[in-house]
User: What shape does this take?
Amino acid sequence: MQKQTWAVILLVASLAMAGCSREESDVQERASDTTAERGAMPEDNVFSDQVKALEKAEGVQQTLDDAAAKQREDIERQQ
Assistant: This one.
């Protein structure tokens, strides 16, 4: 009787573990497929405003860097 109880417990535990692992791996595969297909985050998401602001700031930084480089060249030419 005790062997049957342990066999049932072992069977239930193994089925529970197998069921959870399959579902988790399927979800991960689906998530990785959609991310790989798109190559990036969706256009409309929670962070889209912050991403746009960051891109705009990077553009402003590039403009400032270009202006500073031009100013350095002008100063060097005058010397």
User: Anything to note?
Assistant: The chain is about 85% helix and 0% strand. Residues 44-79 form one domain. The first helix runs from residue 2 to 38. The helical segments are 2-38, 48-78.
